[in-house]
Amino acid sequence: MLAFCSTQAQALPLPNPSAEFSGLAQVSQGKGYYYIKVYASRDRLRLELPPLGDSQGQGTVMILNFASTQGWIFSVGPSLSKEEMKTTPLDLSMAQSLIPPVLINSGQLEGNSSNTRLVAGEPCINWQLTTANHQLVTTPINACLSYDGAVMRNRIGANVVYEMIRFQRGEQPDSLFTLPSGYEMDAERKNLDSFRGQR
Length: 199
Known about the structure:
By secondary structure, this protein is mainly beta. It has helices at residues 92-98, 190-198, and strands at residues 4-6, 12-13, 20-29, 32-41, 44-49, 59-65, 70-76, 86-91, 109-119, 122-132, 135-137, 141-145, 151-156, 159-169, 184-185. The protein has a single domain (4-198), classed as Lipoprotein localisation LolA/LolB/LppX (outer membrane lipoprotein receptor (LolB), chain A). It is 8% helix and 50% strand. The protein has a 15-stranded mixed sheet that branches. The longest helix is centred in the C-terminal third of the chain and has 9 residues, at 190-198. The two termini are 12 Å apart.
């Protein structure tokens, strides 16, 4: 889990998110791992997470808009009932807390750069994070970012917890980053609690 405390320390800003791509990433969980689909269009990000636990085949989608600092989380799946078609608004800090291995680059990261490597055929620069959202990063985090801000790999301490294994550049349709029709706001945040229970 990421740990922060207030700071005024200065560091180099990491590249702002401006990439357009689709990809598949491997994410660690306990002694195993799972895969998520990742879509990005400049300052918008979509994460598709697979069914886990007792979710009865239902996956989870997160959509984040860095310009508005807002997003949504909702369930998807063939067996989804009308009562389950709920969405909960997310801010960026809440989204990051839900999926700690998946470093979300919203243009508010700073650190020290080092060497360059290839991940999924894409060159990226390793960064040792020092601040995120103007707070000091107290857990050792090393992230490898492309020149246009795509997070290709993330290591927390000695463990690689997120790594892109398929990466394809290209324009992404706007429909990926908008809330589908038919979903209602989840005032009781039940789907958020369910997501926390699965991961």
